[in-house]
Every structure is written in structure tokens, then in C-alpha cells.
Design brief:
The structure holds 2 protein chains of 2 kinds. By secondary structure, chain A is mostly helical. Chain A has 10 helices and no strands. Chain A folds into 2 domains: 2-92, Rna Polymerase Sigma Factor, Chain: A, CATH 1.10.1740; 103-186, Arc Repressor Mutant, subunit A. Chain A has helices spanning 2-6, 9-17, 22-42, 49-62, 73-92, 102-105, 118-131, 137-147, 153-160, 164-181. In chain A, helix 3 (22-42) packs across helix 4 (49-62), helix 5 (73-92) crosses helix 9 and helix 8 packs across helix 10. Chain B has a domain at 46-134. By secondary structure, chain B is mostly helical. The chains are: A mainly alpha, B mainly alpha. The A-B interface holds A 16-17, 21-22, 24-29, 32-33, 36, 50, 53-54, 57-58, 61-66, 104-108, 154, 157-158, 161-166 and B 1, 5, 8-16, 18-19, 24-29, 31-32, 35, 103, 106, 109-115.
Chain lengths: 187, 186
Amino acid sequence: MSHLSELTDEELARRVQDGNARMFGVLVERYADKLSRYGRKFLFKEDDVEDLVQDVFIKAYVNIRGFDPSRRFSPWIYRIAHNEFINAMRKRGREPVSFIDLDTLLPHPAAKEATDAGAQRQDMRRLLDRALDRIGPKYREPLVLFYFEDLDYREIADVLRIPVSTVGVRLNRGRALLKRLVPPDSL
Amino acid sequence: MTASAEHEKPSGQDVLETIETHRIRMRPRLYFVLRALLVGVGIFFSAVLLLYLVSFLGFEWRAAAFWSVPDAEFQRCAFVHTFPWLPILLMVGCVVLIEWLVRRNPSVYRRPAAYSIALIVLLAVLGGLAVLRTSFHRRVFLFATERHVPFVEPMYRGERARFRIVTGCPPERAVRLPPPPPAWMP
């Protein structure tokens, strides 16, 4: 099995597309923790995240032949997870999820990708953990994807299907909101 | 990670077993090809309808020519009464549909929607002006009048009025007239 660990996600996905279903198990092992963590952070009020993650994998398996192996696998599977989680939120109606967002319509000044150093990143994660329940899903999700899932702006844009500049705007606003909710000196 | 979290996390084996037990199948490549094709066909037909509507508005605007009457009150009334609400609503619908369909593409959704909408509108206006330079709408008008094509015939109100003023007879009579005899006939 050691050679499997050398294969990229995209190579594994290509093998699954060619009919080798066993390789899908390897992809599940690679992403189960990440998607569960993403679900727990994003849907912090839900208790059936693991069932939703299981559904995400089933949907990924059903649609894997629609994945283009020349592109990155992680935004593709996070996109399926995003849809599944948003649907779960809508069904339960605990938090309003808007359909139209002016942020995606209007151009914003190009947002420079934040390059937080390790310590700063740790601080932001701690802030996020303390205030997640007080931030709306619109800002919570990009923050979780950036600080916990280590996706870059472009990948977050691919997951949320929003402009790259909007990702920067939401992250900046989310960070400002976090700092207002939990003053850094209270950490 | 705690022991309970470890237990709850779906494992590769669990997922593969679920896939096998429920006989879950991957969708074939053809499904995705057909879906992409359907999106392409949707964009094509919406774009054709948009071009038709933009050029139609230009054609009718030119035919109605109410701005040439030197009476501001008449111009205002004519503008309000002949304002083409339905074609404009349809045009907005087409732009929204095209935007929604092209937004699946990464090169589109990574940029603000204002850019793609502006590009669609610009292309529609330029395309509409190009169609307006041809005799397309005049031929559609004559064809629809001759065959009494439902929905299309009543649309060309401005051209109908202009035709009546210029030729002195209603278009449905004019289109039924036999072609003029050749010059060599007595």
C-alpha cells in the first residue's frame, strides 16, 4: 500500500474514473478528517456532521466522472461538501442563507492574499474557535476554509463559486468582525 | 482526536461498503458530456433570442419614429403607450439566464458578475446593431403578416403603422398583391 501514498489525489481520482473503486477508499481516508472538521466548524450547531460527510463522499463517488483530473481535487470535493452543508442549513432553517449577494456582483479592489505567519495564524484559529457561533455563515465559511483547511483565495473562490476579490473582502470583514467580538488581548 | 470522534469519522472501508451494499453506481461520462452540451445549447438559444429582441426593439423604434413629431406631449404619450415592456422583460430574463449558465465556468465566476453582465449586454447591443443593418426584421415582418403568424404578427406594431403611412394600404393587403409585371409587358 506504500505506493498509494505517493499518488496525488488527482491520479487517484483518475483511477476511480477508470473503474478502480478501491482507490476511492484511499481518497476517503485522505479527506474524512478534513471534511469532518470543515463540517464541524461550519455547521457548529449540527450534530450529524458525520452523516453529512458520508453523503458528501457518496455524491463525490457518483459524480467523479465529472471531475477534470487536470484541475485540483480538493476544491472539487470541498465544493460538494459546501453544497451539502448549505442544503442542510436551509432544510433546518436555523441560520438564514442568502441567495443573492451584492459582494459577488460588484468589483472590489484586488485583495492581496494574506500571508499570516504561523503564530498569527494560530491566534486567528483561537479567535475563530471562540467566536464561530457569533459570525454568520457568509463570513464564517471563508474563514474556516482559509485558517483551518489551508485553502488559498483561488481555491476558496472555486469552492464558494464567488470572485477571488470577494473572498479577500469576506476574509477582511470576517477578521475585523472577529477582532471586534473577541479582543486579541483577551486571549 | 478523541476516541469517539475517531469512531464517528467515516472510513474508506465504510464508504466502500455503503457503495457496494446500496449498489451505488458512478454516473457515466456521457451524462456529464450531455449536461455540458445542454448548457451550451441553453446559452446559444438564449443568445439568439436576446439578439432577436435587441434588434427588434431597434427596428420598431426606428419604424415608430415618434420622436420626429415636434410635440413633446405627443412624444411622451407615445413613449409611455408603446413602451415595449414584454420584450424588455424577456431581454432581462435572457441576460440573467445566460449569466447563470456561463457562471459555471471558473474564468467567469472568479470575476465579479458586473463584468460578465456588462460583456453580455455589450455583445447583445453590438450584435443587435449588426442584425439591424440587414433586412432580417423586414422579411420576418412581411412573412408574419402574410402567414398571420401568431405572437409575431402583432409584435411589429410600429412597422405596421409605418407601412400603412408609406404605402397607403395595410400590409396584409400589400403582401397579397401579385408581383409587378415585367417591364416588357404592355
